[in-house]
Design brief:
168 residues; mainly alpha; two-stranded antiparallel sheet; 52% helix
């Protein structure tokens, strides 16, 4: 049986209905989970916000615990978003395909609903980057350094190993 959490993983995009600030009519927006390329672009854009969120992680928590159990409270996260309001609006705009200036004019309740939908759709995106940044800083590495592993390549092929026939 598929549970609600399983459906959230399979279909992370979220819809939210807000009131158009120009017409006062209801508008349904779809907050998309960042796709790969969007995520790459959003990562570069979101660095200051990711750093602010990483700073909220308790210093005693290990990297595995940074995404589980006790974390920053909602008010601390909201404060980090407020400190980077223009950046947050740009990220939300990218996720829903609307202009950031249009989003900025939404009513408070609609803006909060939009932010909650953004977190539901892209919370994993932010969490993965915050955890990576916290882990890198605890290891003394620069958070911008690549953490990609390198797999040793196989031994070079020899003529005897690559011959496919006696005439080759």
């Amino acid at each position: 049986m598929v549970g609600d959490h399983d459906l959230d993983i399979l279909f992370p995009d979220r819809e939210v209905t807000v009131r158009d600030p120009d017409t006062d009519q209801p508008v349904t927006l779809t907050l998309r989970e960042f796709r790969f390329r969007e995520g790459l672009e959003a990562t570069a854009l979101a660095r200051p916000l990711i750093a602010a969120l990483a700073a909220l992680v308790p210093t005693g928590a290990g990297p595995a615990e940074a995404g589980e159990g006790e974390g920053p409270d909602a008010l601390a996260v909201e404060s980090a978003l407020a400190a980077h309001a223009a950046l947050w609006l740009e990220l939300v705009a990218r996720a829903c395909g609307r202009d950031a200036s249009w989003l900025a004019r939404l009513g408070d309740a609609d803006g909060r609903a939009l932010s909650e939908a953004m977190w539901a759709a892209n919370g994993g995106f932010f969490l993965r980057r915050v955890v990576a940044r916290v882990a890198a800083s605890r290891q003394g590495a620069s958070p911008s350094r690549s953490t990609a592993c390198s797999t040793p390549s196989s031994a070079p092929a020899t003529a005897a190993a690559t011959a496919t026939s006696a005439s080759a």
